[in-house]
Amino acid sequence: MREIADELDMKGGGSLYAHIKGKEDLLWGIANEAADAFFAALEPIMACDLSPDQKLYNAMVAHILVIAQHLGAAAVYFDEWRHLTEPRRSAFLQRRDDYERLFQALIHDGLAKGAFAPVDERIATLNILSMMNALRHWYRPDGRLAAQDIAASIASMTLNGLRQR
Amino acid sequence: MREIADELDMKGGGSLYAHIKGKEDLLWGIANEAADAFFAALEPIMACDLSPDQKLYNAMVAHILVIAQHLGAAAVYFDEWRHLTEPRRSAFLQRRDDYERLFQALIHDGLAKGAFAPVDERIATLNILSMMNALRHWYRPDGRLAAQDIAASIASMTLNGLRQR
DNA sequence: CCTACCGATCGGTAGG
DNA sequence: CCTACCGATCGGTAGG
């Protein structure tokens, strides 16, 4: 808290509490900003009238770009939410589960329509999310690969793995 | 440290220091136990005389089983190592990088021999490791899926995605 | 928004 | 291995 105050050119940690109620408020705010960004990126894609594999491709690219453009908030969304106390912790997890269910629905749809080869729907969903979410650990904005290229590459490899032969 | 002392039926945090030099020693020990387990599982597979895709399949199953059987050490290996101070931090990362290079060599080999469809070697390696390593977040020993089945499922899906059509 | 301060907790040590 | 304790740090508050 003293570091945050310092970053805002305030003297001593105490001044911060004229603006916020407590430390957890900051965490809660960032967690929800991240959740907002993920939903805002995915919802228009879910509403489109496209084939399951086109939708999944677009959804993956959108998800990856949100991470690449919100690395700080992503750290909270994927890791630091653990420090939330109840009832906020459960409320956050509920939202994150809702979001993950949208991805699972895309996989489910592709399987139902025979576009994807048979796989365990849950494992496939977790694997796809895991692959994308790990970007928070290795993506560097100034690195060799642009976010757009990484997104296209990951989405292609995944679809290649899922499609019927 | 007081919780650890308590778990060992010691009174007060101080007694612990008759057995260890400091807190970081414990972290360092666990990090290396995990690294040992990963290398021990992978090395015999690397030495085998098999095709690139068979080797990668076996390597993935072995890696996944190490995680499933060492969930606590895996948390240190993947996350808590960040709290190591230099020079241990760098020494640990060196070892982890060496291990990741073994996986990258398997991908490289499959690409060179034309067994795998063209992909960015580095992204493919990171994706495969990410998918497997995320098990630490969602695998539950008492869950619906046995570690062996998850391992086989992840390895199959991955190879299906990599192979030439 | 600042100054001064509080109580709790933490890793670790002294001395036995 | 225990008792007693230290100095540093932390989130937060009082009073202005």
Summarize the structure.
The structure is a homodimer of 165-residue chains. Chain A has 165 residues and is mostly helical.
Element order of chain A: H for helix, E for strand: HHHHHHHH
- What would you call the quaternary organization? homodimer
Shape, per Cα inertia axes of chain A: elongated
Tell me the number of strands of chain A.
Answer: 0
Give the low-pLDDT segments of chain A. Answer: none
- Rg over C-alpha atoms of chain A, rounded to the nearest angstrom: 19 Å
Which structural class fits the helix and strand makeup of chain A? mainly alpha
Percent in strands of chain A? under 5%
Number of helices of chain A: 8
Question: Which chains have the largest interface?
Answer: A-B, 25 and 25 residues
Q: Gap between N and C termini of chain A, in Å?
A: 55 Å
Residue-averaged pLDDT of chain A: 94
Q: What portion of residues of chain A is helical? A: 55-70%
What summary fits the major beta sheet of chain A? none
